[in-house]
Design brief:
Length: about 325
């Protein structure tokens, strides 16, 4: 629904037409809803920027006329008003869009070839501690439908390290309560089975029973159901819900990615094998465990530093 609203907000007809077709192509390629939204958002922001800045009349009206200079200006504005990491995310999205225009024969050459790739500082992501997760779970306590759903949601993120889209797009059939495991579908449609613990299994069983009693959901395949009506709770809705639970619990910046970092952090602190972690997290590049395990590496280094007493012997 948010993507539809975003597409409807694009005023220039040429932009709107190509953006809608691009989104259809992304959907056909099994891109998660969150990825599609972020991609479409970046292009719609470029369209709005060109229209507001009026750098040239034509490029603001038609994406096939956009040049590298316009994208460079947009990127610089993004970095100045947001951050370098945001600028990098927009760069990647625009690469995909203009690459698709080339593949579709709409343009001969991507303007992104003239745009420098932003360099974003890799910051340590602050993991969610057990105490913070406990506080979030406490505000979910209760026996009504939403409370049971939220308990199951939080425990799934906390216990599996799954991505927002992987947990958010789960079907009822993906969860096996006989083996206490779930099939997660990651990037590129790659699937993996991940086990979860007894507390998560108990929360899921309670939620699934409550879900079965909800009017009108018998024909819905999606695991997560919205608070009102017989409709799925999608990834973007889950993202908003997690943030609100965090605010209620007094925990700032609560989002699924922090639990994913926490999972990698705890795994590496316990001395877990990197290859096994890659399988569980759905990674194909060894760069990812290094990035996600950076906080654990820093913590281990601090502990060794304290034990060795370097610089304190005289």
């Amino acid at each position: 629904m948010r993507i539809e609203s975003l597409l409807a907000s694009v005023r220039a007809e040429a932009w709107a037409l190509l953006l809608r077709d691009w989104d259809r192509s992304l959907r056909a390629g099994s891109h998660p809803e969150t990825t599609r939204y972020n991609y479409v958002l970046a292009v719609s922001q470029l369209a709005a920027y060109l229209g507001e800045q009026a750098l040239e009349t034509e490029p603001a009206l038609d994406p096939t006329l956009v040049g590298g200079r316009q994208v460079v200006a947009f990127q610089a504005w993004m970095i100045e008003t947001r951050s370098a990491s945001t600028g990098l995310n927009k760069y990647k999205a625009l690469q995909q869009f203009f690459g698709w225009l080339v593949a579709e024969g709409e343009i001969e050459r991507s303007p992104m070839l003239e745009v420098p790739k932003p360099t974003a500082v890799q910051e340590l992501v602050e993991v969610l501690s057990d105490e913070e997760t406990r506080r979030i779970l406490e505000v979910c306590q209760g026996g009504d439908f939403v409370q049971l759903r939220d308990q199951a949601l939080v425990r799934m993120f906390y216990n599996t390290g799954g991505r927002l889209s992987e947990i958010g797009d789960l079907l009822l059939s993906d969860v096996d309560l006989d083996t206490d495991s779930v099939v997660l579908t990651g990037k590129g449609g790659k699937q993996r089975r991940v086990r979860f613990g007894a507390k998560t299994a108990a929360a899921l069983r309670r939620y699934v029973r409550a879900r079965s009693r909800r009017p009108g959901v018998v024909d819905l395949d999606q695991l997560w159901i919205a608070a009102r009506g017989a409709r799925p709770l999608k990834s973007n809705g889950i993202k908003i819900r997690l943030r609100r639970l965090g605010e209620k619990a007094g925990v700032e910046h609560v989002h699924a990615q922090r639990w994913r970092h926490s999972f990698a952090h705890e795994w590496k602190l316990a001395g877990g094998d990197t290859g096994d972690l890659m399988l569980l997290m759905g990674w194909s590049s060894e760069e990812m465990p290094r990035r996600y395990g950076a906080s654990a590496a820093a913590e281990r280094a601090q502990a060794i530093h304290a034990r060795l007493g370097v610089g304190e012997r005289v």
